[in-house]
Amino acid sequence: GDSVTQMEGPVTLSEEAFLTINCTYTATGYPSLFWYVQYPGEGLQLLLKATKADDKGSNKGFEATYRKETTSFHLEKGSVQVSDSAVYFCALSFYNQGGKLIFGQGTELSVKP
Amino acid sequence: EAQVTQNPRYLITVTGKKLTVTCSQNMNHEYMSWYRQDPGLGLRQIYYSMNVEVTDKGDVPEGYKVSRKEKRNFPLILESPSPNQTSLYFCASTRTGSYGEQFFGPGTRLTVL
User: Fold this and answer.
1) Which stretches of chain B are assigned E, i.e. beta strand?
2) Chain segment A57-79, per-residue pLDDT in tens
3) I want to staple A44 with a disulfide (CB 3.0 to 4.6 A). Which of A25, B66, B76, B104 is the partner?
């Protein structure tokens, strides 16, 4: 079946460090890919998305590129801040199919000053 | 303000005592879903609804019921809760024709003793 795998956390970085969180997927068909972020005590918020191969999603300094050849959607940020501390979820979905999201297990990021 | 609301935010109950978690959205979305979040497993879909009176099972529906009598509301019912239903629950909604980006509620933390 369809699935998403993320690198395990927690990830601890110093402020201004470079961030990469790996995400790979298995899917039949052509999914859309997402990164959601969950700040402590809150629900999930959409961070960025890509709906087709080679698309690059970006928001708040975060970027991810939809790589069909490697079935990957790695999240990157050039310089993290303490306020980026959160849990990050990679997810996939298919167009107009009830909005069902298939999530990875989540990666906790902790940024130290 | 566009939002998804859930109540209660926190609930401690005992095995077998029926409970309902309410969910409401003010965006006129057709699709609504319930997810549970467990450590190391990410979020998994419990049930979803594509419109009023149209519901279907997600990946982990056992022990749960839902109803969709009005477009804005999608309550989650646990008729006989058990300790393995202790979890963090999220309601989410999205519109027809979306690629899967969803709006999430703030979550309900349920403990079943």
Assistant:
1) 4-7, 10-13, 19-25, 31-38, 42-51, 54-57, 65-66, 76-78, 87-94, 103-104, 108-112
2) 999 999 999 999 999 999 999 99
3) B104
